[in-house]
Amino acid sequence: MANLVAIAYDDLDTAKKMTEELGDLVKEHALELQDVVIVEHKGDGKVKLHQPSAVAGGALGGALWGGLIGMIFFVPLFGMAMGGAMGAAGGAMSDYGIDNDFMKELGDKLPEGGAAVFVLAQQATADKVVPAISKFGGHVIQSSLSNEQETALQAALDEGAAS
After folding, report:
1. Under CATH, which number does the domain 3-51+97-162 receive?
2. Is the pLDDT of residue 10 over 70?
3. 3: alpha, beta or left, given left = phi > 0 and alpha = psi -120 to 50?
């Protein structure tokens, strides 16, 4: 079962640094993610979602398969071009994970200039993940964790911000 955690930060830069740390944790196999989104409450009052692009991955996969199929029919460049276009279109249409309206609603509650990182994690090694993200501080604004887990996470974030 996946867990959703949203952590608010004072600025976008801190949120971006935290997501970079999440990327490192994924590489170390300490964290398995379904979705990560940064929600920014801009100075003009608008809410912007920063989502990793599925378009690039779709285009790359499509070009690979298109090239292979094109080689079979002796037109590899045409196959790669068509496959890339189809893969990019498929990647652009596959928005799964955390509901955008839900994130925008919570983003409206952030102070202007603030940001939040929404994480939908399939699995996590807590003794590696919590110390890595706690150094950025932050405040848990939404989670599907148990009350005890959420309290422990917030305490770690508070401790990390203090040091």
Report:
1. 3.30.70.260
2. yes
3. beta
Give all strands (DSSP E) within the chain, no chain letters.
Answer: 3-9, 31-41, 47-50, 115-124, 139-143
Length of the chain: 163
Q: Among 142, 54, 134, which residue's Cα sits nearest to residue 104? A: 142
Dihedral pair phi/psi, residue 125, rounded to 5°: -95, 100
- Domain-by-domain residue ranges, the chain? 3-51+97-162, 54-93
The token pair that represents 84 in the structure block: 């890339």
Please state, in angstroms and as integers, the Cα–Cα distance from residue 35 to each residue in 29, 81, 99, 140, 144, following that order: 15, 29, 10, 17, 14
Global confidence as pTM: 0.72
Instruction: Kindly report the backbone phi and psi dihedral angles of residue 121, in degrees, each rounded to the nearest multiple of 5, phi listed first.
Output: -105, 130
- Please determine, for residue 53, whether its predicted confidence score (pLDDT) is greater than 70: no
